[in-house]
Amino acid sequence: MRILFVADVVGSAGREACLRLLRPLRARVKADVCVVNVENAAAGAGVTRRILEEVLSAGGDIFTSGNHVWDKKEVLDFIEEDARLLRPLNYPPGTPGRGFGVFHAGGSTITVMSLMGRVFMQPLDDPFRAVNEALARTHSEGGGPVVLVDFHAEATSEKVAMGWFLDGRATAVIGTHTHVATADERVLPGGTAYITDAGMTGPFDSVIGVEKELAIRKLRTQLPVRFHPAEKDRRLSAVLIEADERTGRALTIERIQEKLADGSRSDE
């Protein structure tokens, strides 16, 4: 199985990169399934139903998220009914939506989990315990050996620890959230593909997606500044994992970055 994971989509620039680059990329790498992190897709924070359908039409199959998943209130109207959109599974019991799901795409079965770290982030439930419990439930819900975990976390150490914790039990542990791709992609000894952060799909002429002048002003003055997503130098960042469907072991992991030529963009 060939799994394409698209890093955090940020604002209209990220969506435009998806709309114009994802489907040709997916065809070129012969991906069986495509997972996309969309938590920043709506104006840099949150996701809407229309945007979800937009990225679906561009070639995405399953959508993960993170700490900004609730920023657009309308998500509460559809996250329960749309199984394709996952919120971090270590939110407390009773939180709307689901943290993992078993999906069938391209004739293959894959379990995808959205998970969030706690170091320098919200004090959610223990992600290590939560992912353990979810793994124990996958077979009862029809899941097979192929499991991808999107670990949305700030601290490098927490992400690396999660990779080792799940080595041999997950096909891939993909770090997200920092919007800066790391160069440590590898297959761990137990057969788990790992990368600390897959990066960002969005405007690289920016400070992790924000207009650079605004971010610099905030850092220099420490005064309140309203951030806006940047627009220029749009790129799609992703990782491609090849896995053995019978065992769930990853065979390879590869970083990918595609740059979009100048062109039209969405308004939202």
Task: Please render the helix and strand layout as text.
Layout: E1 2-6, E2 8-9, H1 11-29, E3 33-37, H2 49-58, E4 62-64, H3 75-78, E5 100-105, E6 108-116, H4 127-138, E7 147-152, H5 156-166, E8 172-176, E9 186-187, E10 193-195, E11 200-203, H6 212-221, E12 234-243, E13 250-259
Parallel strand pairs: 1-3, 2-11, 3-4, 6-7, 7-8, 8-10
Antiparallel strand pairs: 1-12, 5-6, 9-10, 11-12, 12-13
Helix pairs in contact: 1-2
Features:
268 residues; alpha/beta; six-stranded mixed sheet; 6 helices; 25% helix; disordered C terminus
What would your notes on this structure say?
The chain is an alpha/beta fold and about 270 residues long. It has a single domain (about 1-260), classed as Purple Acid Phosphatase, chain A, domain 2. The protein has helices at about 10-30, 50-60, 75-80, 125-140, 155-165, 210-220; strands spanning about 1-5, 10, 35, 60-65, 100-105, 110-115, 145-150, 170-175, 185, 195, 200-205, 235-245, 250-260. Residues about 265-268 have low confidence and may be disordered. About 25% of the residues lie in helices and about 25% in strands. The longest helix is centred in the N-terminal third of the chain and has 19 residues, at about 10-30. The chain has six helices and 13 strands. Strands 1, 2, 3, 4, 11, 12 and 13 form a seven-stranded mixed beta sheet that branches. It has a six-stranded mixed beta sheet with strand order 5-6-7-8-10-9, with helices on one face. Helix 1 runs parallel beside helix 2 (about 50-60).
